[in-house]
Amino acid sequence: MRTQVGIIGAGPAGLMLSHLLHLYGIESIIIESRTREEIEGTIRAGVLEQGTVDLLNATGVGERMMREGHFHHGIELRFNGKGHRIDIHELTGGKNVTIYAQHEVIKDLVAARLKAGGEIIFNVGDVSLHQLDTPTPKIRFRKDQDGELQEITCDFIAGCDGFHGPSRPAIPETVRKEYQKIYPFGWLGILTVAPPSAPELIYANHERGFALVSTRSPEIQRMYIQVDPRDDIANWPDDRIWEELHARLATHDGWELIEGPIIQKNIIAMRSFVCDPMQYGRLFLAGDAAHIVPPTGAKGLNLAVADVQVLARGLESFYRSGKTELLERYSEICLRRVWKAERFSWYMTSLLHRHPDHTPFDRRIQLAELDYVTSSRAAATSLAENYAGLPMEFETTAGVSL
Ligand code: RFL
Ligand code: PHB
């Protein structure tokens, strides 16, 4: 097989890249290790930045999101039994917080790629990358997990295969530097069949640990509580989860959490991670393959989409005029944004969680910070600007704004 851009992974990064390249007239093939049903059924992110929403709309894949998504104007930070609203819309000059589940974005992108004749090969196994520092890098894989070995010869390879995929390890260890922080806590996430308990997302800081109230639809709600990342979900019968949610979210003004049957629950660990550079020869990493953020800032999917916008522009410039300048600067351009999102995600995580090693002094500093961001317009504006998403502003040395 031969294609211009071989894409490994059909997550938000790989699918959006393939979609953008198609709009630029550049062909690509996506290979994905899971089945279509699996990728379309995996529950992950919920919050889309305004820039992501704008891009989905501008490229013709936003119609269902505009119909079925939820558009909030703010978020609530809750601590000491009281809620404090951050008016994101007002503080950012009109940006929204959009709630539209990642697997719905995936469904929309898969449908758009297939409708346009795009090629996605699902359920592949044994994926490996070869000849990355030549003009004809290659991807090898097996169809249907253990079928015959196949090879795709490409001009470029996009490693969009998430944190555990084979792309990042294909960059020689002597070339890449990795930065990492593992947090001593995780999130237990649930889906429950119940009406929303609040009109906007609630991020709660409590002595017993963090809690988050989010939504998926008028009928299904998404909630999280901070737990030990090594804990077993078997230790969390539904009653215990509700007990913690009630305790951590309780207010002095009688606010009520609405319970319903829990239809899904799992525990995830939390880490911050950055790989620098995000490119090697003709391989470009995008999304979780290159960087991970804890979900507290709701940035992961949005960063993946931002990366592939830069990559698609670079590839477009290469195929249109043979220029390599943007491709050469891919890592540098992306990492400026990535590190700012890493900082914000680390900040939100530090601000909202109970830290096992916190002294009484650290705890009072945390509460003072919460008091500050919810009472100072300057501090609230900074939080709102980061939460809603920093602008996609960068210039090429030729002065072309992207
Ligand atoms: P993905 O989504 O992991 O997709 C990678 C794809 O590559 C496939 N793959 C392979 N394919 C071929 N060959 C191989 N050898 C392969 N190995 C892996 C995988 O099957 C998969 O389909 O990475 P991508 O595209 O970079 O997207 C990143 C996002 O998925 C991730 O950052 C977000 O889900 C993070 N995240 C959130 N991000 C937000 O922007 N807003 C949120 O509100 C938000 N909430 C969250 C989150 C992540 C969470 N979890 C579960 C980690 C909430 C949670 C709980
Ligand atoms: C979600 O709805 O899954 C969600 C919302 C906000 C976050 C993370 C996840 O910060």
From TrEMBL:
<dbReference type="InterPro" id="IPR036188">
    <property type="entry name" value="FAD/NAD-bd_sf"/>
</dbReference>
<dbReference type="InterPro" id="IPR050641">
    <property type="entry name" value="RIFMO-like"/>
</dbReference>
<dbReference type="InterPro" id="IPR012733">
    <property type="entry name" value="HB_mOase"/>
</dbReference>
<keyword id="KW-0285">Flavoprotein</keyword>
<feature type="domain" description="FAD-binding">
    <location>
        <begin position="2"/>
        <end position="345"/>
    </location>
</feature>
<protein>
    <submittedName>
        <fullName>4-hydroxybenzoate 3-monooxygenase</fullName>
        <ecNumber>1.14.13.2</ecNumber>
    </submittedName>
</protein>
<dbReference type="InterPro" id="IPR002938">
    <property type="entry name" value="FAD-bd"/>
</dbReference>
<keyword id="KW-0274">FAD</keyword>
<dbReference type="Pfam" id="PF01494">
    <property type="entry name" value="FAD_binding_3"/>
</dbReference>
<dbReference type="GO" id="GO:0018659">
    <property type="term" value="F:4-hydroxybenzoate 3-monooxygenase activity"/>
</dbReference>
<keyword id="KW-0560">Oxidoreductase</keyword>
